[in-house]
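Reproducibility note. Readers wishing to regenerate the assembly model reported in the main text can use the exact inputs given here. Chain order matters: entities are listed in the order in which they were concatenated for prediction.
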Amino acid sequence: MIVANNVGLFYPDGTEALKTFDFHIEKGELVFITGPSGSGKTSLLKLITGMEFPTQGMFRVLGENIEPDNSDKIQRIRRMMGPVFQEFRLLEGRTVLENVMLGMRFLDLPLHVIKNNAMESIERVGLGHKLKHTVDRLSWGECQRVSIARAVARKPVLIIADEPTGNLDKENAINILDLLTSFTDTDTTVIITTHATHLIEDKQSGVFIKMNAGEMLIERRI
Amino acid sequence: MSKFIKNSGYFLREIKTIFMLNKVSSMLSLVSLTMIFFILMLTVSGWWMSTRWMELIKDEAEISVYYVSGLNPYALDELRDTLGKIEGVNAMRLVDAEEAYNDMEKILGSDAKVLESFTENPFDPYFELSFDFENRLNVVSKLNGVKNVSFVRDNQDVLNQLENIIDFIEIIGIVVGISVTITTFIITSHIIREGIHSNREHIRTLRLLGAPSWFINFPFVVEGVLIAGFSAFIAGLSFNVFSGSLSNAFGGTVQFLPVLDVTSMTLMLWASMTLLAVALGVIASAFGLKLVSVKK
Ligand SMILES: Nc1ncnc2c1ncn2[C@@H]1O[C@H](COP(=O)(O)OP(=O)(O)OP(=O)(O)O)[C@@H](O)[C@H]1O
Ligand SMILES: [Mg+2]
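Running the prediction on these inputs yields the following structure tokens for the assembly.
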């Protein structure tokens, strides 16, 4: 599913965001990435979504190389992912429903399926009563939940969530984590970054990546 | 295609949302494009009218050919024949002494009393020729060589001046026309590009979700086409209202200029400007999208 071979990432200004690493993540695995602010969590996710290219080594996601002249293929694999961005990236001026549906409009799904999937996942993040609200008027926590609904509604094979619980109270945070992790039952790979280590300490299985200043410590619990 | 139809409702809403989210700048684009297209139409029609006037004036230019007095009818016929055969002479008419007198009376108006002091008609008959304007030096020199021709009045000075004016207007027309067209193109594409630029985060988000380019671009291209096309349409509408009075005013102030029928010209201009604007909208949007497109 994801294979990293001797991968490193420098930003153009010389920041070494990710020190050389190797790993592989399999289908249906649950991955938690933790670490202090600035340790490189988002940078790792940006490699996975093709927002950054490795400056060293080979990085493969869903069978495609993440490299500059592969943009059509990267675009194709993005359609199989459910990304939750740290800054949400909702489309202002559109309703909750429209934002969630937008993630599916260009997929091979009939319109009624798109709408049903959207309503179902909006319901699951607890925003069923705000379907027709424009996202501009929502709180941060609500925006976060809309972006999660958008990611899961398209039934992706890979969910990548950057701080999905960052703006939520404990109850909502547990709820969202449960929702995201539940997708591993259907063989979806789920990758989550979080500061909230207390929420995942009790997890019995999964891949735990601890990051510190661009370095990774990988632990697999089975 | 099916994905396109499936999303047609979405595209319509999206076009409206994009417009409403950038309401102020979209309205400003609309207004400034309308003005630009208005100026372009003004330029084109100004050029059209002046060339048309020049054509008319050229057609009215005449050469008068006087002949030695006392020619017998046979020699007069022969002269008529010879003049008619000269290359560049289009039509010819014999103006007899009486008509020449009446013409002068008309020109002098209230001063025509002067003519009464003549006991005899002081005017000579002559041939009035219309001719190929471009060929006129040739025509005049040939006329001068014809037997029995006593004097050729060709208004050389006036004609030369006229020709200079025509050349001048042609050059001005081309220069102004080209620069206004280029300006229109640059401003149109810049305005549309600005609109797309202000939506670059939106475009980037769609890309990150894996949306194909056609899906992302379509509403923006339509937006650009609508803004440009609608501007040209409004400009054409106001221009049509305005042009009638303009041409009348022109024809009225400058005595010798005939009033031109500009209706069909302005309608043509309206249609072609709108089409041009639509094409510009497509090109400028494509151009704008290329500039903001994010590869990563
Ligand atoms: N585009 C960029 N150009 C240069 N440096 C960058 C860029 N993006 C991130 N960085 C730097 O790379 C390092 C890792 O950043 P990253 O965003 O991956 O951290 P993070 O672990 O996600 O932090 P946080 O928990 O605050 O979200 C930081 O030092 C950051 O300043
Ligand atoms: Mg981050």
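We highlight two features of this model. The helical segments of chain A are 41-48, 71-78, 96-102, 111-124, 140-153, 170-182. Residues A 41-42, 86, 162 surround magnesium ion (ligand 2) (CB under 6 Å).
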